[in-house]
Structures are given as structure tokens and as C-alpha cells.
Amino acid sequence: MSTTNSVVASGSVSGAPWGSDAHLQVVPPPPSLGALGAMVEPLHESAKMSAVGLRASFGAREILKGISIPLYEKHVTAIIGPSGCGKSTFIRCLNRMHEVVSGATSVGQVHLDGQDIFSMDPVRLRRRVGMVFQKPNPFPTMSIRDNVLAGLRLNGLKVAEPDALVERALRQVALWDEVKDGIHRSGLSLSGGQQQRLCIARTLAMEPEVILMDEPCSALDPIATARVEELIHELKKDYTIVIVTHNMQQAARVADYTAFFYMGELIEHDRTDVIFTRPAQQRTEDYITGRFG
Known about the structure:
- By secondary structure, the chain is α/β, with parallel strands linked by helices.
- It has helices at residues 87-94, 122-128, 144-154, 162-172, 176-179, 192-204, 222-235, 248-254, 272-277, 282-288; strands at 12-13, 16-17, 26-27, 32-33, 39-40, 47-58, 61-72, 76-80, 104-112, 115-116, 129-132, 210-214, 240-244, 257-262, 265-271.
- Helix 6 (192-204) runs parallel beside helix 7 (222-235).
- 41% of the residues are buried.
């Protein structure tokens, strides 16, 4: 089934909610109530990526148990849930990083612009679906400039105007003015927050369509976190973003949609304001109000 026409987060597949293994016709949801009780028509964004019946395992241990979810184009989707619920495994499946781990397997469908990613060359896929990791990881022996170009060079891609590309990527992450006079310094000379923005610039230099962020602010102080969150708001104008976070406030601040994972299952996926003010599932409410997790 092509899931590019699977539009609304709270839609159902032949009566079953997103998150099930169903593979039938998508039924759009009814209008929901707004904050003041007014009827709000469901949003009909297009899905840049979508998973259908996605299962992932490490050896005999199943981590993801049939995840079905749309990820909307040029929107931010936050993945929340307690530790060990499969959040990071899910986003690693989206660019096939999961399968590089020995003993890791996945079954089901993941589509990018309607094409099954498991039929794509994984290197080309990772150029289109970039990843930013939890801990900033600039290459220690490279300069700031060379860190930005590293992904391109590792993929054997030649750049006609590398200096212009470096400046553009660093401006996109609001780092250019801070480093332009020391562009040949080591990437490790930067602060933690600057290093994380450098790593995002390295991802942007590859010109991806989707950016996956695995707890990108967990190692940062509040000021650096605010800078990255501001950056996410700017980047979503041009990119589809999926962010894993343990920080409920961060999810509420940056995400247009939020998905709650629990024990390998997708419990609920809806607009962020709905998830945090009137969730449909009791387990979602219990988690976001701190009753468990």
C-alpha cells in the first residue's frame, strides 16, 4: 500500500487507529473540538514519509510492534515515551541505520515520497534522510570548515564552490557569525551547543529532505537548547523534521505533531495541542502528566 495519501494523524485504517497493522483504505477523522469548543476541521497535510506495520527487533527481542504513522512534509513530529519504548529505534529505521547493527532486523513498510525505502540504495537514502545524534560528534581532527564538508567528501561528492556551501550551511544554523573568523579551528574548540549546531550544518550540507534528531538537546544547557529549538522552527520551513525527546515541554514548544510510544507500540499520534490538552488515550494522559515514565 502506498501511504502518501494517508493524511491525518488521528485518521483510521478501516476503523483501526494509526499504530495498528491494518493495511486497508484510510478513513479521514471527523472534525475535533478546538480549545474553545469550536469545531476544527482536520488538517490535510501530505505525508513526506510514512510507516505501515513497521516491526523491528534485536535478535529475538522485538522493539517495535507494528508501527503505522504518517510524517507530514515540512512539519515537526515529536516522538515521546519512556526509555526503552522504541523511539530511537523507530527513527533509525527511517534511514535504515537500524539494520547496520549486528542481529538487528526490521519488517514492514516505510515510504519516502511513496517509494519503499527498503528498495532504495541505503547510502542514497541517508543523503535524503539525514540524522543528528544525541551527543554532538564533530570529527576531532577536522576544522570547522572540513566538518561541514565531511559528509559530502565521505560520499565521494564533489562541490563546485565548497566555501560558499560552508557559509550557507553555517548561516542556516546561525553559526556563521560566531565562527567565520576561526573557520579553520578544530570543531572541538566550540562549545557543546555550537558543536551540535555544527553537526546540524554538516547534515544540511548534504541537502536532505528529512532530518531525524535523536534527543539533540539532551547534553545541552538551557541557553544552547533554546538556540537549537529556534533553529528547528526555522528549518521546518524547508525540511521535514522528526525529533525524539524526553522533554515534554520541548515537544510542546517545537512540534506540530506528537506521537506517544509505549513498550514498542504507538499509543497515540495527533496534533501536539491535542496530545497535551485532550489526549484520546488514558495512557497518554498518564505519561504527559507524570503518573509514570
